[in-house]
Input
Amino acid sequence: MLKLTYLSHSSFILDDGNEQVVIDPFISGNPNSPVKTGDIKSKYIVLTHAHSDHLGDGIAIAKANKGLIIAVNELANYVSGQGVNAHNMHIGGGYNFPFGRLKFTIAHHGSSTNDGLCMGQPAGVVITMGGKKVYHTGDTGLFLDMKLIGELDKIDAMLLPIGDNFTMGIDDAVKAVEFVNPALAIPMHYNTFPVIKADPEEFKTKVTQIGKNCRVMSFGETITL
Ligand code: NI
Ligand code: MN
Output
């Protein structure tokens, strides 16, 4: 059993009843966030990249919860320097954590902090937890190797951006769903800012047209996978 909560933008909480993982906790400064930073009790904080709408409140949450940030090496070193515990990983590598297995995948994007420091490669993650596999693509354009990700792991839920401009737009995201073939596709990274305005119902219609399942989650909604 795995509970998945959508906090808006690219931020999700995974909870198997024992452990809780938050991905890309962009809370303060996020007009759509249904929660406050202090509401997040997750001990594990997964960061796909360093952009402020993904690193977000990760350091504050890790400090408040005496938690662990999981990120690629360069970003993990950066957050360690800010005084939090980090687990350094890199793309293609997996590790068995108390909550389950986490593997970093490629993503085509950037990864700099607000002050312009480059934080290595951006990433996606495949997390195996509560008997389910969740693929959070991070911010990325469409890439053919998504087929390989879907071949190596049977994905129960794929969380992918549809907002265009910085990432895949709707039509490329539909192609990504076709490549990965998840049991369920969930759109993210849209409508937080005017430049990433997109209609998730259009995405859902197009995913349904290729014979796949899509769920548009509202902000703060929890589903059980
Ligand atoms: Ni980004
Ligand atoms: Mn982003």
Remarks:
- The CA atoms of residues 96 and 102 lie 7 Å apart.
- The pocket of manganese (II) ion (ligand 2) is lined by residues 51, 53-54, 139, 166, 189 (CB under 6 Å).
- The chain has one domain: 3-224.
